[in-house]
Write a structure and sequence with these properties.
Length: about 625
């Protein structure tokens, strides 16, 4: 069996090398046809457009302005799938003021194929309203287009652009600009922020499209869900508003739900729709349009980003995600590929930025240095993450974790890889005792366990001591304080553990066994106020990258050997030990920790005996601090 696996792996490696060498791309033929048919757009405006008047007038003003530096200015519209970017572009395209301002209007649906020569043909077809022969040479096509747009102020809409290649964009724009009249405009719709930034004219800020307000969302829903646009009963209104609330202002979601409910005649059917996940499957068993449009974004991701995105389903909806923590979690699962030229965490941050630019995250907030600290996921994106992760990921909130039917809901425990316990959206009493989901002891292939519900939850009946020892493949472990009570004697069995969060432990004494976790990358001991020392063999943790000791107010010194952890990227505090204490590290142990970044606080500097010892710390070499 082992030999067969090696042979398969060897063949896969060979295929990967050929793929990379010849730049092959993999596509599903069935998917390609389906997406292509669904995504074709034109300039016609759909019925029942609500809440886009302000956006439309802002864009009309932008396209009519003529004081841009470039002869052909580019105005991007950016936002997640389903917000109505194409619809907004159609409203703009068909407005009378726009029609009178431009002598020529052109519309091209781009999608994933951004080939400059191919697109120039499409622009020519839009300009001449005739099909361009495939036999025509590229130069002939350019000459014909030059004649078609010569001395004309044109408006070109490039719908659904994914291209991130600056060179391709420059080639296309140069071919198009030749002969164009000053004041011509290109409006681009895209889901990807980086595409908008690449294509936008220097002085133009891309127009970021937002979701509809509650009132606008309901108005749109009413037009689509009720016969003749009129509500039939207060009960339908109440159910409908709950459904609309789940759509979070995304017009495509509202349209899909409204269209589905239009043909549902009973309150029972409406209730059934309300109680289903918004994404996934409708009552007829077919994928709804929301999933289709968001899946296009997901399917376009490289495989490593797909894994990273799917993992984010572990966080509860509307959870404020700490970006640094998220990257560490990805690293722990092996989702971040190593690079010879960059630190692993820096690569992970680039992964995050790629997903952010593609609108998989939103509401990004920055610290005073401009680094992104926190973000959120749109509810629809969260539903997509849960859907694509399948049965591998489950999120239990503090209400359903006492549900006696919970184990029956998750019968295929062997498939579960990632579990989080998140807070409920409903008010609850912090003294309330809940049953721990001890059935997870059967989920022997678990890779992640995170308790995000806080420290004030007490598990009625206790926690099964086998819960963590049976999960020997665990990579990420973030328990609450009651769960931590059973850990000290069993920790060494978790030999694959890479991320361990023991923060805010009021009784913690780190066992020597923790030094057996040689794969550990992240150890968080934030707020462990009674922790007095780290284990003597701490230097064995050769793969440790992050050691958070903030607010460990009783910690007296660093252990001898900590200087062996040359891969450390974060060490929040270093406490200089006394010369008479043979178990305490001297400041010279900082010598080889030159990969440290962020902030380092050094305490008890008065114990540094002389200048030579201080110089031995090589603080000048800590260039990332």
């Amino acid at each position: 069996m082992a030999r067969a696996i090696k042979e398969v792996q060897s063949k896969l490696d060979e295929i990967a090398m050929v793929k990379e060498r010849f730049k092959f791309k993999m596509h599903s033929m069935e998917q390609a046809v389906a997406v292509g048919d669904w995504r074709r757009t034109d300039s016609s405006v759909p019925d029942a457009v609500v809440g886009r008047e302000e956006d439309k007038w802002k864009l009309i003003d932008m396209v009519r302005l003529s004081n841009y530096k470039e002869k052909v200015a580019v105005i991007p519209i950016v936002g997640i799938g389903g917000l109505g970017k194409t619809t907004l572009a159609q409203l703009l395209y068909n407005d009378d003021k726009v029609k009178s301002h431009f002598e020529l209007k052109l519309w091209v649906c781009v999608s994933e194929n951004f080939d400059p020569s191919f697109l120039i043909r499409k622009v020519l077809e839009s300009a001449t309203k005739k099909e361009v022969s495939k036999d025509l040479e590229a130069n002939t096509v350019k000459e014909l287009l030059h004649e078609a747009i010569k001395d004309k102020r044109f408006l070109l809409v490039l719908d659904d652009v994914w291209n991130e290649d600056r060179e391709k964009w420059a080639r296309f724009k140069n071919m198009l600009s030749s002969g164009a009249r000053e004041g011509s405009k290109i409006v681009v719709t895209t889901r990807i922020q980086i595409v908008a930034d690449i294509m936008a004219t220097e002085t133009i800020v891309p127009h970021e499209l937002q979701g509809l307000s509650k009132a606008e969302s309901w108005t749109l829903f009413e037009k689509l869900a009720f016969r003749g646009g009129a509500t039939s009963s207060p009960n339908y209104v109440e159910i409908g508003k709950e459904i609309v609330g789940k759509c979070r202002g995304v017009p495509l979601a509202i349209r899909t739900m409204g269209g589905l409910l239009y043909f549902k005649d009973t309150e029972q059917e409406w209730e059934s729709v309300k109680n289903k996940q918004l994404l996934g499957f409708g009552l007829d068993g077919k994928e709804n349009a929301i999933l289709a449009t968001l899946r296009v974004s997901y399917n376009n991701l490289p495989s490593n980003l797909k894994r990273c995105f799917a993992y984010c389903g572990l966080f509860p909806k509307d959870h404020k995600i700490e970006v640094k923590r998220l990257v560490q979690l990805w690293m722990a699962q092996g989702y971040v590929e190593s690079s010879q030229s960059s630190f692993l965490d820096d690569v992970g941050v680039e992964y995050f930025k790629s997903l952010l630019h593609r609108s998989f995250f939103q509401e990004a907030t920055k610290d005073k240095w401009g680094n992104i600290e926190y973000c959120k996921m749109h509810d629809l994106m969260h539903d997509l993450a849960m859907e694509v992760s399948g049965k591998e990921t489950i999120v239990l909130n503090i209400c359903n974790s006492i549900d006696s039917n919970l184990e029956r809901q998750h019968t295929d425990l062997e498939r579960i890889r990632h579990v989080s316990i998140g807070d409920s959206t409903e008010p609850w009493n912090s003294d309330r005792r809940l049953f721990f989901p001890n059935f997870l002891v059967k989920a022997t292939k678990l890779r992640t366990y995170m308790n995000l519900a806080g420290e004030n939850i007490y598990w009625k009946g206790g926690v099964d001591e086998k819960i963590f020892t049976t999960m020997t493949g665990m990579r990420t472990l973030s328990p609450n304080r009651e769960e931590r009570k059973i850990m000290p004697h069993n920790i060494r069995k978790l030999k694959h553990l890479r991320y361990l969060d023991l923060s805010f432990n009021g009784t913690i004494v780190l066992p020597e066994e923790i030094t057996c976790l040689v794969n550990l990358q992240v150890l968080k001991l934030y707020g462990c106020a009674v922790l007095q020392k780290l284990p003597r063999g701490f230097g064995k943790l050769s793969n440790l990258l992050y050691l958070n000791l903030q607010e460990c107010t009783s910690l007296k010194c660093m252990p001898v050997g900590i200087g062996k952890l040359s891969s450390l990227r974060e060490l929040s505090i270093f406490i200089v030990g006394a010369a008479t204490d043979y178990e305490a590290a001297r400041i010279s142990e900082l010598k080889d920790l030159n990969n440290l970044s962020g902030k380092l606080r050094i305490k008890r500097l008065e114990l540094v005996k002389d200048e030579l010892e201080a110089v031995a710390a090589s603080l000048k070499e800590k260039k990332h601090l």
